Amino acid sequence: MTDQSLIILGASGDLTARLLLPGLGALLAAGHVPGLQLIGAATEDWDDARWQTRVSESFGFPYEKTRYLRADVTHTDDLRAVLAAADGPPAIFFALPPAVTARACEALLDADLPDGTRLVLEKPFGVSSETAAQLNNLLTRLVPEDRIHRVDHFLGKSTVLNILGLRFANRIFEPLLNSTHVASVDIVFDEDLALENRAGYYDRAGALADMIQSHLLQILGLLAMEPPTSLDAGELRDRLADVLRATHIWEDNPAAFSRRARYTAGSLRSRHLPGYAEEPGVDPSRNTETLAEVVLAVDTWRWAGVPFRLRSGKAIGDSRKEAVVTFRCPPRVPDGLTGHDQPDRLRIGFGPDKLALDFNINGPDDPFELDQVTLEAGFGPGDLPPYGEVLRGVFDNDPTLSIRADVAEQCWRIVEPVTAAWAAGKVPLLEYPAGSPGITDSLLTP
Ligand code: BG6
Predict the structure, then answer these.
(1) Lowest CB count within 10 Å: 99, 125, 321, 414, which one?
(2) Which residue minimizes the CA distance to atom 5 of ligand 1?
(3) What pTM does this model have?
(4) Which long-range CB contacts under 8 A does 394-399 form with residues at least 24 apart?
(5) Would the CB of 191 count as within 6 Å of ligand 1?
(6) 193 lines ligand 1 (CB under 6 A)
(7) Which of 190, 191, 198, when mutated, tests ligand 1's pocket best, judged by the most ligand atoms within 8 Å of its CB?
(8) Is 181 a catalytic residue?
(9) pLDDT tens digits, residue range 343-358?
(10) What is the pLDDT of residues 118-127, one digit of tens each?
């Protein structure tokens, strides 16, 4: 499709530079959205030349079909001027903090949005199920739901999307993915990145909202959903919504089945890191966690009784990013075979992107002595980086990879009991040194 325009509100900010522009550049370089008109708007006193430099640097090639407009994005008149500069119905990307996004949406109510306008929002969508619902109501007063793209870039990661192919285009895994055969599921995203100067955002979010409430719940949804009959938006998002509606904290007991911690000073890959509480811009009295872990129940016929442990930590020495399906032990191993003490595991790695299957066979030497071996396959990178992939959906008017309104609210509903238990002081804030493995003992042993 040609003659499209993208308006970025919050164009001078960190999100625009770090994720949005590089993703957009990759999409353009791959020949998608030829002739895209790009308009950056923000309060900073920038001119076209300064903005063009930022765009070209992020893209890695010069781009001239772009301009910058100085605007207070919470003022209707300023927004009208930005809209008037767009050729045709724009996609409007809110690269703004949630409270400013809500105010910008209110200001847009009187701005006469052209038919066909799309709204693109970054997480967090609200800060609770109630505020997410309020934001959703506001958004649907502006454009229909299928023109609202709530971006979760994990849904644009080709390895995450590969979960669908792995499960539903093969005979051999799917029949085993249920409570008869699976003992537990772990979805882990432990990063060696620390705060990286993002206190302004992160100190109000924390690991639970930053990673678990958003990205890791989407992975859980893809791993646990019932088979969709097609990958069109309605079908896939219905299946995702079904499974997330059935998901809640294990035994509805957040005090027992959640954990939080933050890093203290330490060294990570020869970098000395200050403790999180000492990082510039952090207010230690907020008690923001940099590691969160929850155990969830997916209360469906297929999954009842199988714990799903979700965990994400920052400043972890050995980063570990994977979903692991641990199978139950075989019902009866013949006497005389030894060495079968490890369960079978299916591991889907999100960096490095690979699939691994651990299982027991007899290795060299004694044929009755079993060893665990691993079959591995690399997933290979996708054509586009995750942001490019989700933006492609925006320009193609395809909301398949966008979070639907009800799902955004459900994801808050799932973690809210944990937030409440933490606020009530029912779960201690533990500590781990930066560069260590984080908190390691298991929260739940099934
Ligand atoms: C972002 C989080 O959404 O995802 C970051 O805000 C996190 O804290 C990042 O580091 C991880 O995603 P990726 O794709 O950069 O590994």
Answers:
(1) 99
(2) 210
(3) 0.96
(4) 394/91, 394/118, 394/120, 394/149, 395/1, 395/4, 395/27, 395/32, 395/33, 395/36, 395/91, 396/1, 397/118, 397/146, 397/147, 398/233, 399/146, 399/147, 399/148, 399/149, 399/233, 399/237
(5) yes
(6) yes
(7) 191
(8) no
(9) 999 999 998 899 999 9
(10) 999 999 899 9
